[in-house]
Amino acid sequence: MAGYLIRRTLGAFLVMFVVATLVFFMLRLVPGDPIAAMLADVGDPDAIDEIRAKLGLDQPMYVQYGKWLSLAAQGDLGNSIYGSRVPVSQLIAEALPRTLSLALLSFVIATLIAIPAGLIAATRKNTGLDYSVTFVAFLGLSMPDFWLAILLIIVFAANLHWLPAIGYVPLSEGFWPWFSHLILPSIAVGTAFSAIVARMIRSSMLEVLNADYMQVARSKGLSEMTLILRHAFPNALIPVITVIGIAFALLMSGTVVVENVFAIKGLGRLLIQSILNRDYPVVQGSILVVSAIFVFSNLLVDVLYTVVDPRIRYQS
Amino acid sequence: MSKYSAVFGDSTANQPRTSRTRFIREIARDRKALFGLVVLSFFGFLAIFGQWISPHDPNAMQFDMLQPPSLAFPLGTDDLGRDLLSRVIHGTQISLFVGVSTVAIALFFGLALGLLAGYYGGWIDFIIMRYIDLQWAFPNFIIAVYLVAVFGAGLLNIIIAISLAFLDDFARIARSMVLTIKHEQYVDAARVTGAADTRILWRHILPNSVAPIIVQATVSVSYAILGEASLSFLGLGVEADTPTWGLILADGRSFISRAWWLGLFPGVAIMLTVLSINFLGDGLRDYLDVRDVKDV
User: Fold this and answer.
1) Domains of chain B
2) DSSP symbol at A262
3) What pLDDT score does B30 carry?
């Protein structure tokens, strides 16, 4: 168990190192010299040379790489090339709570919908209820999240005026302002996630309900409620947890797109805006942080899985 | 001859035909898959013949801006007075083209990598699999965004980005299929008769691992279409004057409070296309009896 954890953790750091290296070299090896494009507005060649020297771009590539890597490891990701040249780490520190709020709330809302939906579909197999859940799940998987976001804005913000259409308010300014700004984006992000988890719970429950130990429990005369919630559901959850790992990735890529619809200045918006503006230090920094979120949440899910399912612990 | 040879002779002679009729019969009975096939054919028709059936030039500006749906403009017009129906029809072409071409490219290179890794093993397998593992740690859409950050926007670049992003899915399936099939007797038999490696790979191993690959490819087309729409919507996709579903939605976004049709119809087109591919994929999954295909 300890050996497995150490191996997985080292692996996660190795992946981050490779990502950092790829990010550094790819952005420098692309045709059309991004640095030149970045400095095109300056015009004056002397000024360009001066800026290059100031940014350390006149040094050999491996020197730049070593410097960048050691600074990045200390949390210094350089400065934005625009305006007052804000440090990238500061931009990310401002964006991160927004993205995490959004991802967390989507996760909660989606799970609260997916669990009962999956349970109902499994216990009422092949009834109208089951078919409706399956159909809605298919719809949820097929709707682009940004379009769902637009529809929610049209209905709840533009026409009913129930909720604000765009923006973000931090939790420190009160629960309702925070919550009301996040609820529509959370639904847009969480729908596909919810659809996957509901379908997974359904099929996993159907498998468990046919197991021998369920027959035993049933023959003891337990109530249907106890059967399902105490005996079937916990066992059905085990395969669902691995899928939650995959589905969490979906949730995070959802925030990237949906933040841009609701003008929430989170990590996703930072990433996309910096790509559009060719603000390469910010592109590098946000790719690194977004990647770290994936790598370490995958790690967390793996660890969780070994805790929940003892069979895996003993195998490794 | 014995009755067995007659029976076997018969069944092998009829196999292709019976399996084809079985396929048609099962698809027709599976109402979801049938719906998928019909809707998809409709969009396929629009993609091919769109330029002749669309009522207007998709980029021609009329003098009726932000008109709600009417007889002259069945889906309304946008802020520049362009006919939304014509734009959505033209968008079909790009969406389906990107969806199919990216999956075809990913399929070709992914299969090649997976077959090589699984068949030869050793250091070739090690190197290929470390790369595949790296990519596997991230969602396809995020990889596509990263790659667009490097290559820049534009139709060709997003096709490259999306194809590369889907590579690992196919490589993984192909590799695991090779590993299970490699030691089957018929592969050994082929090797004993002196068949070359490439012949064994293409004539014996590939045909036997085709079912999960078909299902994965179908599902991937829907994700590629969603990916292209999202990238275009974010401004990382095709050039600004090309009508694609994602871009039409992005352009219409500022006007949705006054012109709901700009926010509704292009999305309906995306959803119907993706939904019908998912239905078809699900039908194929049941028909070919495939499980364990990555759903994200």
Assistant:
1) 35-51+82-288 (1.10.3720.10)
2) T
3) 78
Do the Cβ atoms of A246 and B150 come within 8 Å? Answer: no
Q: Do B296 and A150 touch (CB under 8 A)?
A: no
Q: Report d(CA B229, CA A13) in Å as an integer.
A: 33
Q: Which of A139, A150, A298 sits opposite B253 (nearest CB)?
A: A150
| Inter-chain CB proximity B267 and A249 less than 8 Å | no
Q: Which segments in chain B show pLDDT lower than 70?
A: 1-20, 27-28, 63, 290-296
Among A14-28, A189-203, B65-79, B227-241, the minimum mean pLDDT is found in: B65-79
Task: Say if B156 is an interface residue toward chain A (CB within 8 Å).
Answer: no
Shortest CA gap A275–chain B (Å): 6
The ipTM assigned to this model is: 0.84
Q: Residue B77: beta bridge partners?
A: B83
Residue of A nearest to B130 (CA): A15
pLDDT band at residue A40 under the 50/70/90 scheme: low
Cα separation of A216 and A213, whole Å?
Answer: 5
Q: Is B148 an interface residue toward A (CB < 8 Å)?
A: yes
Give the pLDDT confidence of B32-54 residue by residue, as tens digits. 888 889 999 999 998 888 888 88
Q: Which residues of A touch B264 (CB under 8 A)?
A: 151, 154
Q: Contact A77/A67 with Cβ under 8 angstroms? A: no
Per-residue pLDDT tens for B148-170?
A: 888 888 889 899 999 999 999 89
The amino acid at residue B223 is: Y
Residue B159 is encoded by which pair of tokens?
A: 């096709």
Tell me the C-alpha distance between A3 and A26, whole Å: 34
> Distance between the two ends of chain B, CA-based, in angstroms?
54
Distance set, CA A13 to CA A269, A296, B119, B134 (Å):
26, 9, 30, 12
Q: Which is nearest to B175 in space by CA: B232, B136, B149, B230?
A: B136
Residue B280: CB atoms within 10 Å:
25
Sole residue written with tokens 């299970």: B180
Q: With an 8 Å Cβ cutoff, are A154 and B263 in contact?
A: yes
